Each structure stands twice: as structure tokens, then as C-alpha cells.
Amino acid sequence: MNESFPLLEIDGVTVAFGGLTALEDVSFAVREGETVALIGPNGAGKTTLFNAVCGLVRPGRGTVRIAGAPAPSSATGLVRAGVSRTLQGLGLFDTMTVLENVLVPLSTTGGDTARAAATLARLGLTDVAGRAAGTLPYPERKRVALARALVTEPRLLLLDEPAGGLGADDIDALATTVGDLAGDGRGVLLVEHHVDFVMKVADRVVVLDFGRVIAAGTPDEVRGDPAVEAAYLGVGAA
Amino acid sequence: MDRLVFLVAAGLAHGAVLALFAQSLVIVWRANRVINFAQAALAVVAVYAALAVTAVSGSWWLGAFAGVVAGGLLGAAAERGPMRLVPTHTPLPGIIVAIGLVMILQAGLAIAFGPEYQPVPAPLSERPFVLAGIPVLSPYDLLVLVVAGLVMAALALGFTRTSLGLQLRAAAFAPETARLLGVRVSRMITLGWMLSLATAALAGLLLVPTELGLHPHALDGLFVQAFAVAVIGGLDSPAGALLAGLLVGVLVSLVSGYLVAAAAPLAVLALLTLVLLVRPGGLFSAAKERAA
């Protein structure tokens, strides 16, 4: 990674599907040790942006750069470039054990069982390492998905709705974990609907609506923005 | 009693070959959700290659090795060639292309080598050992059991204990997720086909000396029985293929020995029907379907 560039730099990205513009001229950056939250109503283009970063959709205009270099077009290249993501639907291999789930990304980048075990220990999953992932309660499955993303020790972590479906205690624990990740010098970009969680963990918030950035700034700045209230937060929210 | 022991022993040896071939169908099913109806035709090409190498070298073992390698290469060629071009949103195009491949390969073999059976001697004696006055397994039967057991154990260990096996399983169960995690899914699918056809070729090599000989259709019957075995065991289950293979092998042997050989296919179909009625996914099917 080149230290002088942002970990992730999105510059003027526009994505269209046929006649529908999903993203229009979106620009922002994620730096080392920074947590950036991407919020917006359903259909605002958040997941499309994630997919553009991961090379799953190709921008019609604009560029995505990872540490100053064009983002690799393959998932393998992205993992090797130090980028990792979780999926909105978890995407665990339910019939595999928790340990095997965490070993899958290591099998492509090199790494041993000790590193996987250390990651599981960090997220409190050691006791369930030998259990099939599909048999775990939902909050633990969320942690397995996070462990799988963390095990390759990415510099940039993309989290797709990490707090979705979690209770208050689990969200508090997740906020601590995400705070620790940024403290380690990682960049974190997360898509999230849970506004309280976003306001707690994010250093900066980018608000999308109809594929355009309508606000960006610190949580306090965004919270007071009338355009954001109108588009997403609603009166009295957060 | 003597007859029962003999028939069960012979059934286990035949069942090991069935299990091996069924294993090959399970591997390709797990790799990309395809029942390869060209499995027998591709495998028989590999057996012809083995026979050619045996004829030149004089060594059955060298021929067998060449046959397994040829099977792997044919698997890669089939997957990277016709099967990759087939639309995958519905199974029918894959079945039709596979059947077309069968016709081309079997006609080509008949043109190249003739339609007659070519006798293939076994590398070891087929005379059974006699224990306490009861004829049991022959040295060749023992070889079949040992080789099939070792290969299936190696496959099981490879899939569960190695990094490559983990990637193969990840690519098979949830290809899109695996791709996002950096697994080269396309390469894994090709590798799955190579393993599958190498295994099928080995099963064919082990079967042919116990039958009438080599012929373009020599493995058709094996495919039909092994397909039933794979479904009975559960198409997702390597362990199911092993146990169902041994079960069907013994069933065929007993029905052939006590009734008539012509009744054996009916017995297999009856067992298949029963299993499909009671447990449609197979006796050892996984609870979860493959994810997107």
C-alpha cells in the first residue's frame, strides 16, 4: 500500500443500468484509521457503490482507486490488494465449520490455521470454531462473517449492513469492534441503516439519495443537514 | 451359507467400483450442479488410452496411470469446451450436449477401434481364495477394493483437509461468495471435472477386466447403476456414494446369484424408487442446498 494516498478514493463515479442512473458523479475517500459510513434510503445506490469498488459493476465514468492504484477488476486481485468485504446476506458456507469458513479466504492468500484461530479468538468465536456455521444463532453468524473478512488482515474493510438484525447489546459490541479496527489503522467503509450505530462509529458520513451525494461530513454535520432530514432521517430521527 | 458369503464378497468388490464411479458423478455435481451424462463415454475413451499404453509398454500399471491422466485431461477438455458453452439456467441444454458428446465419442471409438469387444486381462488372478472351503475374493477383487478404498479416502482427505479442497468446496457450495473471497471459481470447476473424470476412468479400468472386455459401450451399464447409486446415496454426499455403492453392489450380486442376472437392474430400480419415495434427496443428502 502507498502511504501517501487514501486507502480508497472514489472519484466522479457514475453507474447506469440501461436508462436508470444508479450512481451519479459520486466522490469521496477513506483514509487510514478512518471509518466512513454510507447511508441513504433503500435504492439510493449504496450497494451499487460497494459493487463498483469490488469490480462487480463497472462505472461508466469516474475511477475507483485503492491506495493510489486503479482498483483490481477481479475479486482475487482485490483481496491481494488488502481489501475485504462482508455481505449483506452473510454468505456463510453453512455446512462448513466456523473455522473452515474463516480459512477459505486464507486458502487463496496464504496463511495458516493459527491466524484463523487468533481471529476467531478476537471475536469470541473460539468455542464454536468446530460447529457448522449454519447452526449458530444470527448474532454469532454475523461475527463469523466479520471474522472471515478480517482474517486476511485487510487494510480496507467494506462492511455491508453490519448491524442489521442485531440487538442492542450486540450492536454495542460491534461498535467497539469497529472502533478497534479503525484504531489499528484500517480504513472502514460501511453501509448501514441503523442511524444510532452510524453516528456512534463513523468519523465521516456520506449520504446518498437517488445515486447522488446529498451530504457529507462528520456525524454532527450530517445530522443537522436539512436535506438529509428530508431525504432519509426524518423529523426527530436519531 | 457358502454361497451367501461368496455373493456378498463378490458384491462388495463390484460395489467398490460402483461407489468409485458414483463418486465421480458426485464430484462433478458438486463442482457445478451438472449430471454429466457423458461420464461413461469420456471414461471409456480414457480406458482405450490405457489399453493402448499397456499394449505398447507391456505394463498394466503404466497403462492404468496413463488412463487416469487421460481421464483428467478429458474432463478438463469437456468442461472448458462444450460444457462451458452450455447455458446453465436450466439443466436441459447440458443434458442434450452431453448426449451429443456420447454419440460422437462412441461412434468415433467404433470407427477407430471397431465395434468388437477387446479382451482386457486383469493384472492379478481372478481365481478366488478359498477360506474354510468357501470361495471368497480373488486377488484382483482385493486389488479393486484396496484401490477404490484408497482413492475414496484420498479424495475425502483432499476435500476436507487441504487448502485446495476447501476452495473446491467453497466454489461448489456458493460460487459467487467464494469468488468474492478470492477463490478462482472457474479454475476450481475445471479441477472438479478433472478429478471426476480421472476417478471415472479408474473405475472403468477396474471394471473392464471383469466384464466381456473393452467396447465403446462397455461402461454404459456402469453409468446407469452408478447414477442410481449416486441418487440413492445423495448427489451431494461422497460418503453416501460409498455406502450406497457397496449396498447396491451386494444387492446386484445377491439377486443375480439367487434369482437371475436379468432381475438385478429391476432390483436396483426398486431400491431407487423406494429411496426416492422415502427420502427424495437421497439417504445421506445434505440439509442445505447450494447458495447463489
Short description:
By secondary structure, chain A is an alpha/beta fold. Chain A is 36% helix and 25% strand. Chain B is mainly alpha-helical.
Describe the structure.
Chain B: Belongs to the binding-protein-dependent transport system permease family. LivHM subfamily. Chain B: It is found in: Cell membrane. Chain B: Keywords: Amino-acid transport, Cell membrane, Membrane, Transmembrane, Transmembrane helix, Transport. Chain B: This is Branched-chain amino acid ABC transporter permease. Chain A has 238 residues and is of the alpha/beta class. Chain A folds into 2 domains: 1-82 and 154-238, P-loop containing nucleotide triphosphate hydrolases (Rossmann fold); 91-153, no CATH class. Chain A has helices at residues 46-53, 75-80, 98-109, 113-122, 138-150, 168-183, 195-201, 219-223, 226-233, and strands spanning 8-17, 20-30, 35-39, 61-66, 69-70, 83-85, 156-160, 187-191, 204-209, 212-217. A 6-stranded mixed sheet of chain A has the order 6-7-8-3-9-10, sandwiched between helices. A 4-stranded antiparallel sheet of chain A has the order 2-1-4-5, covered by helices on one side. In chain A, a hairpin with a 2-residue loop joins β1 (8-17) and β2. In chain A, α3 (98-109) runs parallel beside α5. Chain A is globular and about 50 Å long. The model of chain A has no long low-confidence stretch (mean pLDDT 87). With 292 residues, chain B is mostly helical. Chain B has one domain (14-219). Chain B has a two-stranded antiparallel sheet. In chain B, β1 and β2 (134-135) form a beta hairpin. Chain B is globular and about 60 Å long. Classes of the chains: A alpha/beta (238), B mainly alpha (292). Chain A binds chain B through residues 54, 75-76, 78-80, 85, 87, 91, 93-96, 100, 103-109, 134, 148, and chain B through 163-164, 166-167, 169-170, 173-174, 176-184, 286-288, 291.
